[in-house]
C-alpha cells in the first residue's frame, strides 16, 4: 500500500513554497493506493476496450441540460445537508481506479479522484493567488474548487463562471448560508463569450472545463486574449501531449476522440505565442488522472 504525499506532487510540478495548510490536508486525508498487478492491469485494458466500443456520451453544446440537471442535484443535496462536500461532482466518486505517475492504480480512500485533483489544483493556484485580487474560475460547475480556495485566502474576490444557471444558484445559496459576499456567480458561455465580463488583470483558471468544448475553442481564446487577464492557468486533458505509440496513451487518445474532448487547444496557444500575442510560461504533463483519461495537464500563459 502506498500513500500520496506532498513530495509526490512536488516531484511533478516543482518545489514551490511550503503551504502548511495544504501539507496538513494531504497528510490527514491519507490517500492510499496500490499499483495494479499484471492480471488486474490486463483486466483494466479489456474493460477499456469494451468501454471504447460502447455508446459513450459526446461532449459539446448538446450537453447543457445534463449539466443543469447535475449541478441542480448537487444544489438540492447541499441545501438539505449544509455539507459542502455534497457539492463534489458525482463523476469523482464513480471508480476506484485512477492514474498516478503513469501507472494504473487501485484506490482505497473515499473520493480519491477528487482529492488528488484538488491537491494538484491547490498546489499550483496557491502559489499564484497571492499576486491577484480577483480570481475567476471558468466552467466552475458546483464551484467546489472556489469554495475550497477561499479557505486559504478568504479576503480575495472570487468569481465562478458557468453556462449552467444552476451553478449560479449554488453560489447564491453558499453566499446566503455562509453570509459570504466575496464570491459571485456569472452566467458565461464558452461558445459565445460575454465581452461585458471584465477579467482584466485577474487570475483566470479552468479545471476539466474546456474539455467539454472539443475543437470549438476559438471564441473563448479570442475573448481571453482581448480581455487581458493577468494570468491563465489550465488543468485540462490535452490530447497533443500523448504518445500514439504508448498503449495507455493510444487508448486515451481514442477515448478523447470518441467523447469529442478538447482538441487543438495547445497548438492554438502555441500559434498565439509564436505570433507574439501571448506568452506560454509552462506546459507540464502530470501522467495522472482518472480511470479513462489523463486529465491534469498543466498549461500556464498570459496575454501580451
Question: What can you tell me about this protein's structure?
Answer:
Helices cover 41% and strands 18% of the residues. The protein is an alpha/beta fold and 304 residues long. It has one domain: Vaccinia Virus protein VP39 (Rossmann fold, 3-Layer(aba) Sandwich), CATH 3.40.50.150. A seven-stranded mixed beta sheet has the order 7-6-5-8-9-11-10, with helices on both faces. The chain has a four-stranded antiparallel beta sheet with strand order 1-2-4-3, with no helix packed on it. It is globular and about 55 Å long.
Care to give the gist of this entry?
The protein is 41% helix and 18% strand.
Short descriptors:
four-stranded antiparallel β-sheet, 18% strand, globular, single chain, Rossmann fold, 10 helices
What's the CATH first level? Alpha Beta
Query: C-alpha Rg, in Å?
Result: 19 Å
Helix content: 40-55%
Could you say how many structural domains there are in total? 1
Low-confidence blocks of residues: none
Distance between the termini: 47 Å
CATH homologous superfamily, by name? Answer: Vaccinia Virus protein VP39
Overall, the morphology is globular
Strand order of the largest sheet: 7-6-5-8-9-11-10
Which sheet architecture does the biggest sheet show?
Answer: 7 strands, mixed
- Extended strand count: 11
Which whole number gives the mean pLDDT?
94
CATH architecture term? 3-Layer(aba) Sandwich
**How much strand?**
15-25%
Strand/helix succession: EHHEHHEEHEHEHEEHEHHEE
Amino acid at each position: 500500500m502506498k500513500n500520496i504525499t506532498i513530495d509526490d506532487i512536488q516531484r511533478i510540478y516543482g518545489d514551490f513554497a511550503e503551504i502548511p495548510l495544504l501539507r496538513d490536508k494531504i497528510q490527514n486525508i491519507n490517500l492510499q493506493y496500490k499499483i495494479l498487478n499484471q492480471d488486474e492491469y490486463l483486466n483494466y485494458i479489456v474493460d477499456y476496450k469494451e468501454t471504447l466500443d460502447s455508446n459513450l456520451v459526446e461532449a459539446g453544446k448538446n450537453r447543457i441540460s445534463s449539466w443543469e440537471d447535475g449541478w441542480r442535484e448537487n444544489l438540492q443535496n447541499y441545501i438539505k445537508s449544509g455539507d459542502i462536500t455534497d457539492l463534489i461532482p458525482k463523476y469523482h466518486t464513480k471508480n476506484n481506479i485512477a492514474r498516478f505517475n503513469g501507472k494504473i492504480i487501485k484506490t482505497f480512500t473515499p473520493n480519491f479522484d477528487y482529492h488528488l485533483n484538488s491537491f494538484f489544483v491547490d498546489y499550483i493556484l496557491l502559489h499564484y493567488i497571492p499576486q491577484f485580487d480577483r480570481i475567476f474560475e471558468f466552467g466552475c460547475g458546483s464551484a467546489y474548487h472556489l469554495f475550497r480556495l477561499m479557505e486559504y485566502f478568504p479576503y480575495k474576490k472570487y468569481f465562478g463562471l458557468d453556462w449552467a444557471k444552476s451553478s449560479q444558484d449554488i453560489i447564491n445559496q453558499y453566499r446566503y448560508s455562509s453570509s459570504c459576499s466575496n464570491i459571485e456567480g456569472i452566467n458565461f458561455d464558452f461558445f459565445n463569450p460575454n465581452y461585458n465580463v471584465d477579467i482584466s488583470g485577474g487570475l483566470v483558471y479552468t479545471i476539466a472545463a474546456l474539455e467539454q468544448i472539443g475543437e470549438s475553442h476559438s471564441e473563448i481564446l479570442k475573448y481571453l486574449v482581448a480581455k487581458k487577464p493577468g494570468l491563465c492557468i489550465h488543468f485540462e486533458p490535452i490530447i497533443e501531449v500523448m504518445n500514439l505509440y504508448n498503449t495507455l496513451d493510444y487508448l486515451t487518445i481514442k477515448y478523447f476522440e470518441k467523447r469529442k474532448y478538447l482538441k487543438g487547444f495547445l497548438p492554438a496557444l502555441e500559434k498565439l505565442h509564436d505570433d507574439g500575442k501571448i506568452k506560454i510560461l509552462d506546459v507540464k504533463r502530470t501522467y495522472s488522472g482518472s480511470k479513462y483519461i489523463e486529465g491534469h495537464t498543466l498549461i500556464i500563459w498570459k496575454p501580451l
